Amino acid sequence: MRPGRxxxxxxxSIAEHKLRSLLTVSGVVFGVAAVVTMLAIGEGxxxxxxxxxxxxxxxxxxxxxxKPSEPESGTSANARVLSYGLLxxxxxxxxxxxxxxxxxxxRRDVPVDARxxxxxxxxxxxxxxxxxxxxxxxxxxxxxxxxxADEESRLPVCxxxxxxxxxxxxxxxxxxxxxxxxxxxxxxxxxxxxxxxGTGGTAGLGGESDAAILIPWSTMRERYGSIIVDNRGGxxxxxxVELHRITVRxxxxxxxxxxxVAGALRRLLAEGHPQEDxxxxxxxxxxxxxxxxxxxxxxxxxxxxxxxxxVGGIGIMNIMLASVVERTREIGIRRALGxxxxxxxxxxxxxxxxxCAIGGxxxxxxxxxxxxxxxxxxxxxxxxxxxxxxxxxxxxxxxGLVFGIYxxxxxxxxxxxxxxxxx
Amino acid sequence: MxxxxxxxxxxxxxxxxxxxxxxxxxxxxxxxxxxxxAIMGQSxxxxxxxxxxxxxxxxxxSGSYELDGKDVSRLDDDRLSHERNRRLGFxxxxxxLIPHLTVLENIEVPMEYAGIRxxxxxxxSTELATRLGLGGRLKHRPSELSGGQQQxxxxxxxxxxxxxxxxADEPTGNLDSAxxxxxxxxxxxxxxxxxxxxxxxxxxxxxxxxxxxIHMLDGKIAREDRRVAEAATP
Lengths: 423, 234
Hints:
With 423 residues, chain A is α+β, with helices and mostly antiparallel strands. Chain A has two domains: 3-52 and 289-421, no CATH class; 60-251, no CATH class. Chain A has helices spanning 3-16, 18-56, 88-97, 132-135, 148-153, 162-169, 217-223, 255-272, 283-326, 328-336, 341-378, 386-413, 416-421, and strands at residues 60-65, 82-83, 101-116, 119-128, 140-143, 157-160, 178-181, 184-192, 212-216, 227-230, 237-240, 245-250, 278-281. In chain A, the strands form two sheets. Chain A has a six-stranded mixed beta barrel. In chain A, strands 2-11-10 form a three-stranded mixed sheet, with no helix packed on it. Chain A is elongated. The two termini of chain A are 27 Å apart. In chain B, strand 1 and strand 2 (19-32) form a beta hairpin. Chains A and B meet through helix 1, helix 10 and helix 13 of A and helix 2 and helix 3 of B.
């Protein structure tokens, strides 16, 4: 029989029992939807992670001071000054001894109350150098970034994060105006574009700049002492931290170079900071870890979705076996009229495959809808690659073949005489 | 012209537990082309087995079966299917139409297996159905037809591939007498056209239409009647 006729026959037989057919394929429908949705979630997560890491800069290496965990708790904290973290001599040593680097950019953070007229807000002053703009992937929306001349002359100028500009200057133009921190005034020379929430992660190059006031490194050294006092959160915290960050940019972005620079930095830290008060973050390594994590998740989710497809397939096989029994007489008639065994096999196989293809199509529809719902309701980032749909449809049709072959063989092996005698 | 059926020393033995049952026990039968033959016998006489053998649905344990001059007794399943498709036409007591197919589609089933193009099959099935008085019912399903009409569809289907031999198993068994007579008249017409027909029945009135009747007993032919007297009268 011709393939077209075979498919038409299969369709006719499926249409004969619409509800039963629909129930039969529901397992495949949801299985396909599960596969695609899982893949879409995995892909979405991975894109988000990659975007975050890309923002950190793939040839950057980030050193951050971390407060060592205190053995004794808060009672005497007021009296003590906690001293930890990166030192200026670390910066000099990195700049002079680590090969294959372009830049090493320092940053020191001081929590402050900033004021413009009567408006106040809590912000963080970043003391940093002009190169910070490029290593942190910052974008200047208005005015300009800190310059080498500002640095050299220790000028009282500042660049504002978007949040600071918005809250202290409202809708007015901040450029050229003054901002007060304590007794000091800083002239606003630029405003940064919004970075958005939470994209910096532990490496801290994301949204934190939105609430920052960036001033020249030299200006900060002149105006702030070595002790940082933080009155926030009720208690007074006194810390001595020379530098909070050093962003190192490798000469090239390939894994080998970044790896060698990372190695050199780790050796330096092991020597100078045995108390582990400095953390090294390598975005490129994170990227690789993210990929590995994604691969693992894809495997796990894929397995779960695969099991649901398997269950769907078994459901189909079950119904097809019942259908073979129910249609024993038809099989006998067809055999008497000259159908060969393979005609019977093809007939039932075509029916299962068409059934599964219908299930696959419905599942594809559902799997365009479902990630969309997840995104709007739960804010989960999902990406449905057309390739997933093709894959899921192929799997559904494949299930039709695999789980259809046994019932079809059973049908074909029936003895024509027995089958004709069947009620 | 050669004989359509030539059974020689035909044996078909079943195993029923310990016992062997000889459903056909060394039966010889020759059916010349154009003959209308009736087979009668009690149930268990072996007439169903004989019909299955003649219809290539079953194989002999020993002996030989020549259908249309070709030895089919040692053919494999595929080749037997082929023979059924091309040389045989079946008419059953319970019509055995496929319920979800229309009249035309039912008639076309054997043609599909013969690889006839859909267009040609449709033309042939329409001609056959019309000739058998089903012209107004071509798109109906079997459940929408009377018993007599269903049996006509079955006969049309049996004729689809122009078979050498038509086998009918109690063709009027499910029909009232008037309708049964219509069907028997139809079979008479086919016989008159020169078709070779074998009818299995336990109804004397059905057997009376045939040129020759064989009576089976214990897997053998016990007796044979030839309609000599009537054949002589026009």
